[in-house]
Design a protein that fits this description.
The chain has 15 helices and 13 strands. It has about 400 residues and is of the alpha/beta class. The chain folds into three domains: about 1-85 and about 260-285, NAD(P)-binding Rossmann-like Domain (Rossmann fold, 3-Layer(aba) Sandwich), CATH 3.40.50.720; about 90-250, NAD(P)-binding Rossmann-like Domain (Rossmann fold, 3-Layer(aba) Sandwich); about 295-340 and about 350-390, no CATH class. It has a six-stranded parallel sheet with strand order 7-6-8-9-10-11. α5 crosses α6 (about 125-135). It is globular.
């Protein structure tokens, strides 16, 4: 069998070689002529899969190594008897860790104590539910909005969106939908931003189209937001560079780009392919996941404030500001090259591991005082709880 795989799916050639002959192609280069003779097509979110791509081809299976599949015409695949699999939840922890890194950085920049601050999470699926747990571990008060889950569960913890507008932080984790009562296209519009608490910190790691860019620029320009963090943009890869200059942290749609998440996503669609065609799977996540660069991390809870220690530990694993700095280099590119530059950052993204690969070791100074030892023990217990809560091994 012939397999076309997005070049940004790590180890795809090696993994899927157990199924057939693999050709690795850039995601935006996967077009009708490329897939015409393929049996299997493996994509990520930048490739639109529909009749325009597949009509007249011999494709029998499509896999997307992503949690969302807005770029897939699932109805067309079903009508055409083409098998399909996505990778729900595969990069959810990576995206949630990105949010924690962003929260700690913004808190440092603006001298915000996250303990006791409120955060509204809009969309409580695979990513949002993980953000909920990690934010609670930081001592934040969490408020949730997810209309479909509310109807499904009748759980009162899912609140009307209006009840989140007074939160200190708002973070979006919804799919991008264009129709129905739960449509999310431009969910964050002019009315949305005008309804938020003055000085709110706004984050979006869901899909660019969930936010009306013009409305966000107006809100930032009017001083209604204290800070804004964007990982996703309307019209990617041709993003609004004026908006990039206005946000505090801007990154090139890489929140879910940990190596761990990518490999999990690949294995999920690999096993789906094997099941569909009746093959035995020869590989698992452990077949490709390397040893972490930072297996252990020693911290001193007395070296600085608890929140600074948390930020220091996170930045030993993932420095979100480095992704921000790299994206801002797009401002120096010619207009016709900006889209290519954005895609290049994603294609050539460096290895990033998740917090759970690192074990925390606490280093403390000897003290003779029983009172000091007790105080130190309480500090360690509090810090250890927060580190474990955001994902580290403690």
């Amino acid at each position: 069998m012939k397999i076309i795989a997005d070049a940004n799916i790590p180890f795809a050639a090696r993994c899927f070689s157990s199924v057939g002959e693999v050709e690795v192609v850039g995601g935006r280069e996967i077009g009708p002529s490329v897939v015409r003779d393929a049996d299997i097509v493996l994509v990520r979110s930048i490739t639109r899969v529909d009749s325009d791509l597949l009509a007249g081809s011999k494709v029998r299976f499509v896999g997307t190594a992503t949690i969302g599949f807005e770029h897939i015409d699932a109805e067309y695949l079903s009508r055409s008897n083409i098998g399909f699999a996505s990778a729900p939840g595969s990069n959810a922890n990576s995206a949630a860790e990105y949010v924690i890194a962003a929260l700690l950085n913004i808190a440092k920049q603006y001298s915000i104590d996250l303990d006791g601050k409120s955060i509204g999470i809009i969309g409580v699926g695979n990513v949002g539910s993980r953000v909920e747990k990690k934010a609670k571990a930081l001592g934040m008060k969490v408020y949730l909005n997810d209309p479909p889950l509310q109807r499904q569960s009748s759980d009162p913890k899912y609140l009307p969106i209006e009840e989140l507008f007074d939160c200190d932080f708002i973070t979006l984790h919804t799919p991008l939908t264009f129709e129905g009562g739960d449509k999310t296209f431009h969910l964050a519009d002019e009315k949305f931003f005008k309804s938020l608490k003055a000085g709110c910190v706004f984050l979006n790691t869901s899909r660019g189209g969930v936010v009306d860019s013009s409305a966000l620029k107006a809100a930032i320009g009017a001083g209604r937001l204290q800070a804004a963090v964007l990982d996703v943009w309307e019209n990617e890869p041709n993003i609004d560079t004026e908006l990039l200059e206005m946000v505090d942290i801007g990154t090139p749609h890489i929140a879910g780009y940990s190596l761990d998440g990518k490999i999990v996503g690949m294995i999920m669609i690999y096993k789906a392919v094997c099941k569909y065609f009746g093959f035995s799977a020869k590989f698992d996540v452990g077949s490709f996941l390397p040893a972490p660069a930072v297996p252990e991390l020693e911290i001193n809870p007395n070296s600085s404030s608890e929140q600074d220690v948390l930020l220091g530990a996170v930045e030993k694993i993932y420095k979100i500001v480095e992704d921000d700095c790299k994206l801002r280099q797009i401002l120096e590119e010619r207009a016709e090259r900006k889209g290519e530059f954005f895609d290049g950052l994603r294609k050539n993204y460096p290895v990033r591991r998740e917090f759970g690969n690192t074990r925390i070791i606490t280093a403390t100074e000897d003290t003779e005082s029983t009172e000091n030892k007790l105080e130190e023990g309480l500090k360690i217990k509090s810090l250890a709880g927060k580190l474990a809560g955001i994902g580290f091994k403690v």
